[in-house]
């Protein structure tokens, strides 16, 4: 299985929570690995919030604050597609390509950075420390995104 496409070659894209835009396998991630030439000298960032059917307040805030930070601080990058946000219910979609690839075992926030066709992945475990303070969370996440964009 390639990094960003389904078995039949469909790309994967951003999906807002409860967007009803189809399955993740029918959507497109920023900068698919199948066409790295399109990403030359570019950085594409995808934030993925994995969760289950039941979510506590901190679990909800993990994604809510991430999405709000992106909307407030990175509107231009969201509009251009260089930054994307995905909300994936791993419990409801256990065979989802991203669930199979990253194998989340709990609610989590993953940062995928694609730089010139090379993908790096990091679970942002420290985000949990800020799920009770949206301002601190936004500052933490923005620092990581800004560093990744350089």
Based on the model shown, name its key terms.
single chain, 150 residues, alpha+beta, Glutaredoxin, four-stranded mixed beta sheet, globular
Biggest sheet, open or closed, and with what strands and sense?
Answer: 4 strands, mixed
Q: Rough shape?
A: globular
Number of helices: 4
Q: Identify the CATH homologous superfamily.
A: Glutaredoxin
CATH T-level topology: Glutaredoxin
Q: What series of H and E elements makes up the topology?
A: EHHEHEEH
Radius of gyration: 14 Å
Strand order of the largest sheet: 2-1-3-4
Could you tell me how far the N terminus lies from the C terminus, measured between alpha carbons in angstroms?
29 Å
What can you tell me about this protein's structure?
With 150 residues, the chain is an alpha+beta fold. The protein has a single domain (24-149), classed as Glutaredoxin. Helices cover 30% and strands 20% of the residues. The chain has a 4-stranded mixed sheet. Helix 1 crosses helix 4 (134-149). The chain is globular. Mean pLDDT is 78; it is low at 1-33 and 36-40.
How are the elements arranged and paired?
Blueprint: E1 43-51, H1 57-73, H2 75-80, E2 83-89, H3 97-102, E3 108-115, E4 118-123, H4 134-149
Parallel strand pairs: 1-2
Antiparallel strand pairs: 1-3, 3-4
Helix pairs in contact: 1-4
What's the short version?
The protein is of the alpha+beta class and about 150 residues long.
């Amino acid at each position: 299985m390639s990094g960003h496409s389904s078995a039949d070659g469909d790309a994967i894209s951003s999906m807002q929570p409860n967007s009803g835009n189809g399955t993740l396998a029918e959507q497109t991630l920023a900068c698919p690995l199948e066409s790295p030439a399109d990403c030359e000298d570019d950085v594409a960032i995808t934030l993925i919030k994995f969760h289950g059917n039941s979510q506590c307040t901190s679990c909800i805030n993990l994604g809510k604050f991430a999405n709000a930070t992106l909307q407030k601080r990175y509107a231009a990058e969201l509009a251009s597609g260089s930054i994307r946000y995905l909300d994936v219910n791993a419990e409801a979609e256990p065979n989802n390509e991203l669930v199979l690839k990253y194998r989340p075992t709990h609610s989590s926030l993953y940062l995928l950075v694609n730089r010139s066709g090379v993908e790096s992945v990091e679970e942002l475990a420290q985000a949990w420390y800020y799920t009770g303070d949206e301002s601190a969370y936004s500052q933490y996440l923005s620092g990581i995104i800004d560093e990744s964009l350089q």
